[in-house]
Structure formats: structure tokens, C-alpha cells
Amino acid sequence: MNESANNAIIITLNNDTSEIIDLANTLDYTILEIFYQKKETPDVKSYIGKGKTEEIKDFIEKSKEKIGLVIVDGELRPSQWFNLEKTFAIEVFDRIHLILNIFEKHADRKEAKLQVKLAQLNYERPYVRELIHRARAGEHPGLMAGGEYQVDDYYEMIKKQIKKIKGQLENIRDQRELRRKHRHTGGFYLVSLAGYTNAGKSSLLNLLSKEKVKVEGKLFSTLSTTTRKIDNNNIPILLTDTVGFIQDLPAYIIDAFHSTIEEIEVADVVLLIADISEDDDIIFNKLSVSLKELTDIGVNSPIVIILNKMDGISEEIIDQKIEFLLERGILDNQTYVPISVKNKINIDKLLDLIYKSLPQLTRFNITLPLKSDSQSLLSWIYDKANVIDINYSNEISLEIECNFKIRDKIISMSNKIKNKKEN
Q1: What does pTM read for this prediction?
Q2: How far apart are CA 322 and CA 127, in angstroms?
Q3: Does 149 score more than 60 pLDDT?
Q4: Is residue 172, in this structure, part of any structural domain at all?
Q5: CA–CA distance, 129 with 151 (Å, rounded to integer)
Q6: Which of 34, 58, 286, 295 has the most CB atoms around it within 10 Å of its CB?
């Protein structure tokens, strides 16, 4: 991106521009000016009124610094996009286009790249139809994606690519499902991290797994799922980091990331993370968006709400914020805990809540003879289950808590060792 292309202006009907500015900053745009128009609904032809359009056009033409992009804080119809680009004579992105560019920048694995490409193609379809309509009406618009294709040919190529990518993603989804089955039958519980983008999910994954997954302080730095084992001596848990939520995403984008979002849907427990250091209304809105997303994708598992970044505010302010959220009803009947990943505050409380939320934990007792085969089995049990109590006398007595799916396996393996002794 050259220096002039880095300069942008924002058009908004919303007086809260914090999110659109964050999105622009993630792509390293420098915002020269924000144009706000108080308007209940967007103008049908150009999103904003004629007077505001002329004001912005005049600003662009007289600006001492060259402006390379106009960002509209909303979702444009194809006709609105075409009219704005024609009027301003520079590139125009709406909010969705901006988000898709961020996705493209951060997609580093095959699945993520396919998902982003599918979302982009679905986004482009109505715009290309608009270009076809304009061309047939006698106008000669340039193709938004560039390249050597005529608009009709390009539209057909989009349809073929969408079909091909959907097939590839379906194959990846099948492979993911197979891996999940192996993990479950191996005694692992699956816990997913969810929440509004940039709430600290990747940092929590690193802390609980004692690994070093790349963490960036930018929106949507995580697009691919990352799964790690929680580093503890209790129940074996696989923790998965997932793509962050953001409000008002079109259904086709959510659908494109279905195989990734599915990791949340099938989790045994979902950890929903929010940044408690933000303003009360922002925390409430982001939790509302996230809980709605979890409902929409069909999550029925227990949810633990994690209020991260408590290190930046006092205990009194934390209590006030929690009281505010309780009064607004967002924490009603919810399990929640304030934590600090940075300063490792309340992490033990969080782990305890995770264990208590796990479904179908079973507790039972076994005995093993004092022999080498028993020691090998003991090592395996410690890796797959929580050994609550162990006593050595004439035999080894264990009290175990584990995933019910491996209970029978442990009992069967212990019986084999006992029978081998008798023979």
C-alpha cells in the first residue's frame, strides 16, 4: 500500500466510530477526516444525502494530502457503491469490504484462505451484477476486481469458484469431524474460546497451554482454529481458539466460516471472553453480540463468561461494572469470573469453573496389582484422567475422575493386568 493509498476518510451515520476506526487501523489506514450525518436510514441512491456528498467531494478535491480510500461505516447496496465511486472518483469500501480485506491479510492457512475467498466471492456477486446492469444500460464501469475478464465472464467464474471452494471446505470439515471423534474417544474434553475480536482469546490459550501461539493486538488476527492441550494434572482438555465475533456480519460470511465456527458449536464448554476494561455500554453490547452469535450457531453447552483485563482497573470499578452487567441482565443465570491473563489473576478460579462445567464426569475406583504393567497403565491414566487419590499397600488403589467415554477402557485395561497376574 503506497503512502497516498494509506490516507482515508470515513463516512458514518453512527456517532460511535470506535469500531470502524479500529478496523481501518488494522489495515494501517490513516484517517484524515470523519464525516458524520445524522440520518435514521441511508439514502437510497448514495447512502448519504446530496449535500453531504458534495461536501465530501469538495474535501477530497481540495485536500492537500491525497486520499486513496473512502470508508463507509455501514453496508452499501451495489448501486450506492457505484454512485459514490463515480462521484468521488476514488475507491470506496463499505464496512464488510474492509472486514474481508482484514480477513484476507490474516488468513495464513489453507482452510482460512478458502473461507475468506468464499466470503469475498459471495460479497462480489451482487456488485458484479450491478456492473453488468450498468454496462447493458450503456455505461462503461470498470470491473471492481480488475483482470482480463468481461463482467459476464467474471460472474460465471465466480459461480464456478464458489462451487469448487464449497467442495474443498466440505472435505476439510469431514477431516475435522474425524479428528474430533478421535479426541473424544481418547478421553479428551473439547473447550472452545469465543468472544468479540481482540478480547484476549489467543493470550489465554497461551497461558493455559504454556505455549507460544502468535498474538497480535489487532482485530481478527486469529482466523484459523488453534488447538492445544491445557497444561494441568487433572482432566485432559483440548482448548481451541476461534475467529472473533463482530456485530452485523452478513449470513454468507458466517456460513463461509462454518467449519471453523463449528468448533464452538460442538465444544463441551465454551469460554466467552470480554474485555472488562472497556466502557460499560461497550462491554454490554459486545457480550450481547457474542451471546446472540452463540445462540444462532446452536450452542447448547455450558458457557463460562470470562471478564479479562481486570489488571487495568481497580477492584471497586470491577465491582461496579459487574453490578451494571447484572442490572442489565446480561449475566443472569450465567457463570462468570473476572481475570487477568497478563498478571495471571484468578486463573485457578477459571480452571475450577471449567472443570465444574464439564459434562458427564464420572468418578470410580479401581485396584491394580504391584507390578510393572500397572506402572505403565498408571502413567497412561495420569495422562487421560484426574487421579483424585492413590494408595499403595498390597495393591494399588485409585480413585479416578474422567470422561465417561474412557471409564470402561480404564476398567478393561486394569482387568487385563489382574487376569494376567492370575495366569
Answers
A1: 0.68
A2: 44
A3: no
A4: no
A5: 8
A6: 286
